[in-house]
Amino acid sequence: MSDLLSIGASGLKAYSRAMSTIGDNIANAQTPGYARRTLALKEMASGTESALVGRNVSPGGVTIRGITRAVDKWLIDDARVSESDATRAATRLSWMNRAEDALSNDNNGIGTNLTKLFTTADKLTADPNNKTLRAEFLQTMKDIATGFQGTAKELSDMSGGIADAAQTSVGELNTNLDALERINDGLRKARPGSTNEASLLDERDRLVDQISTQMPVTASYDDRGTVTLRASSGDTLVGNATVTHVAVTTAADGRLSFSVGGNGFEPGSGNLAGLGQAADHVADQRAGLDAAAAQFAGQLNAAHQAGTDANGNAGQPLFSGTTAATLTATSLTPDQVAAANASGSNGNMLAIGGMRGANDPEAAWAGRLAEQAQATASARAQESAAWTRADGAAAARDSVSGVDLDQEAADLLRFQQAYSAAARTIQVARETMQALLSAI
Questions:
Q1: DSSP letters of 226-286?
Q2: pLDDT in tens, 193-233
Q3: From the CA atom positions of the chain, what is the Rg in Å?
Q4: Across the strands, what pairs with 299?
Q5: What is the Cα–Cα distance from 16 to 95, expressed in whole angstroms?
Q6: pLDDT tens column, 301-345
């Protein structure tokens, strides 16, 4: 009867732990990074078994081997890579949308005022001595210069914002690297198969997930579950009880450079890659804006200086400054508008109106906006495709590691019945023992 009692007791202990494990699964069904756990059981060998005794029947009950996590390494790695790519695309698109807004005509009015410039020039050809039209011509120049200045400031602020975001992201990344090494230290001390070990492994995977959304990493594991993390450059981030931090530097034009332990590397995916690509794009737009401002000012200055004003004096430059941020309209009076030239009182305005064409400032600006719109649309399509793939990879990972409440409910009922049966086994053992004692 003692064997029957011990068998029933082992069943009660095992099935009680199994139900607790299922309860833990149910409670953490919505916890990020939690991997479904199962209790591993095995038959307990009887202490009375002997190879010298033939046909010896001596069951020993059940024992707990430990807790196992439902994970698939390939699906985990695929989900990390997919989300890293999607995060890069989303970060890049976010800043490209802002760049598009900064360049848009609704924001700066440059396109509208360039059109107004040539329209006013056309009106002056019909009435070159009209002071109201002359004043309107000069005001349009001021509005265009203000538009360039405002756009330059927005793009400059955007570069600063990207740099700040990169510094914040690198700070969070380094904090996670430090935390990951602490998890490694805990895993070295944890008892294999324990709930503590399972919790540490969940936290380890969650931290690696977060790190991989910042930059691409390669993870390898030892037999205790501790992770060695390497950057795409091969440099070790976490490993051998040491942590190497990531650093970011910002160039004068806003471009970003990343390094690990002083060694430069280029993140191919993740938030840092998206910020790096966004910084490059904004830097290109700033350089292009400066070139457009310089070209515009050069063309208009040359055209205006080729004519004469109402007093017969040579036309003066309409703009000063060589960049979008420094572009400033020259302070002129309406009489100083050089509408005339040697061919007549409206000859220079005719020449300025004749600038309109494939290479004029208006067409060049429209082309710049079209290029930005096309680049943003392409980035939007890439972002959508990347998240579709990431969602699919995450669903595949969750199909293995996620908690299915219907399955947990069925398992809970199964182990509840097994627990009741184990309790009944103890009750039968007690009743049988009592019957034997009563018969003596």
A1: -EEEEETTS-EEEETTEE--EEEEE-TTS-EEEEETTEEE---SHHHHHHHHHHHHHHHHH
A2: 899 999 999 999 999 999 999 999 999 999 999 999 999 88
A3: 37
A4: none
A5: 54
A6: 999 999 999 999 999 999 999 899 999 999 999 999 999 998 899
* CA distances, 193 to each of 21, 70, 142, 199, 262 (Å): 13, 13, 74, 11, 39
CA distances from 242 to 182, 201, 245 (A): 10, 19, 10
pTM above 0.90, yes or no: no
- Nearest CA to 238 out of 259, 211, 203, 263 is that of 211
Element (H, E) at 416: helix 405-439
Token pair for residue 385? 């495709």
Q: Is the pLDDT of residue 117 over 80?
A: yes
In the numeric block, which tokens belong to residue 26?
């149910």
Give the closest residue to 387 by CA, choosing from 169, 31, 94, 88: 88
The per-residue DSSP string of 43-94 comes to EPPPTT--TTSTT------EEEEEEEE---HHHHHHHHHHHHHHHHHHHHHH
Residue 422, Cβ neighbours under 10 Å: how many?
A: 22
Contact predicate 122/419, CB 8 Å? no
